[in-house]
Amino acid sequence: MPALRTPRSIIAALLFVASHASASEQLDISYYPISGDTPAQLLQAMQDNGPQADDGSRFHGYTRWNVRWNYQTNSRSNGCVLQRVDTQVNGSITLPEWTGEHTADAKLRERWRNYSTLLREHEQGHYRFALDAAAEIRRQLAALPPQRNCDALVQQANQLGASLVELQRQREIAYDRDSNHGRNNGLEL
Fold it and tell me: Tens digit of pLDDT for each residue in 38-90?
């Protein structure tokens, strides 16, 4: 079998990106206890004890995320350019933990495991919007052309970053709407 070769231009591009951008992320997953002996009781426990959104609505699982970006500017003869774009993503996912699972019947345990797996996947889908926002910020800010001065570039970079975060927030809203908060993808106890 012949050896795979990577074109030098691709290697050079990867090295350029790696030296001009960095990304960090931190995702915390926490659990809240629920109890019950039937699917209806478990659903009620999640409704009563689930995490709250900013508007007070309760959910069975909930994801919060924040994307920040930093960059360095450099004044050159042709204007001001961004030298480095870094992003930081912080997220938290809150999920239910059924405290009585070990004493429940096998059928209910299986239903719970399926439900909790799909709920975790759905919430991780929310977090992916943060990662997508960060990736787009790194890509698009790094591609900004030089500006006449650094103040103009900073303003343009921050407006672009904020608009990219807002775009992902709108996609996240559509994700819940289109999936009916995961129910259309089988999220049912």
Answer: 999 999 999 999 999 999 999 999 999 999 999 999 999 889 999 999 999 99
Q: Are 147 and 80 in contact (CB under 8 A)?
A: yes
Six-digit token string for 17 = 């990106």
Strand order, beta sheet including 62-76 = 21-34, 79-98, 62-76
Range list of β-strands (E), 122-181: none
Instruction: Give me the amino acid identity at 177.
Output: R
Note the pTM of the prediction, 2 decimals: 0.86
Residues of 148-183 as b/e, b for ≥16 C-beta within 10 angstroms? eebeebeeebeebbeebbeebeeebeebeeeeebbe
Residue type at 24 in one-letter notation: S
In order of 19, 114, 188, the CA distances from 118 in angstroms are: 38, 6, 9
CA distances from 9 to 12, 14, 15, 31, 144 (A): 5, 9, 10, 47, 21
